[in-house]
Amino acid sequence: MSAVNQHPYFPQSLELSGYTPPTQSPFALVSVMGGTLGAVLASTYVAFTRRRVRGWVLGRSDRLVAMWFVLCAALHCVYELYYLLHFRTLVVTQDILASTWKEYAKSDSRYLAQVPLVFALESITVTVTGPLCLVAAYGIWTQSLGIRHIAQLCTSVLHLYSVMVYFGTEMIAAESNCRPEALYYYGYFMAMNAPWVVVPLVLATQSFGAISKGMSIAKVD
């Protein structure tokens, strides 16, 4: 195996010139990422639990949806923005964020191979979907139903579109970009992305119903 092919990613023919492995263990990387996201979720829950709108406490479902949108905004506007900024240098970068991307890339090496499709999808996610998640969270915070459901529907459709393209292009690829171990395919590739299929389907249905109901009431009036 040549020097440019000495890496843990698939396909094994993939060339990653200058690849530098993470200095942290996979457990440490997953723990840091999980702990950070857990802190984001916990602080969001506390903030929205204490929130009062016209004297009323926000409902449990609203708080859970708000947690989802703040989590998505944090991932899109911080973590994935980092990826875009280091798109061409990620393979040689060794800080903690680069290392977490390298660990995830064991399930999808396209993130290290500088694939234009991945860059395009992440660009849309960072510049459009992420900010819209913040708008949706703001709509819940202020109980502005129009703002909330329009943003919620848009973000949900964008999430579903991105995941369909992401999964679809991997399924039809000539060679798999994922390592063969179950941990990486079912744990990283499938399980880590599944929420962006299930939750957007539920939220899109909810917002479609709310917008349709509002339009029907407006038409009657």
Automatic annotation (TrEMBL):
It is a multi-pass membrane protein. One of its GO terms (cellular component) is endoplasmic reticulum. Residues 61-204 form the EXPERA domain. The keyword Transmembrane applies. Its main location: membrane. It is found in: Membrane. Pfam families: EBP (PF05241). It comes from the Eukaryota. Keywords: Isomerase, Lipid biosynthesis, Lipid metabolism, Membrane, Steroid biosynthesis, Steroid metabolism, Sterol biosynthesis, Sterol metabolism, Transmembrane, Transmembrane helix. GO terms for molecular function: C-8 sterol isomerase activity; cholestenol delta-isomerase activity; steroid Delta-isomerase activity. InterPro entries: EBP (IPR007905), EXPERA (IPR033118). The keyword Transmembrane applies. The chain crosses the membrane at residues 27-48, 64-85, 117-141, 153-173, 185-205. Belongs to the EBP family. This is EXPERA domain-containing protein.
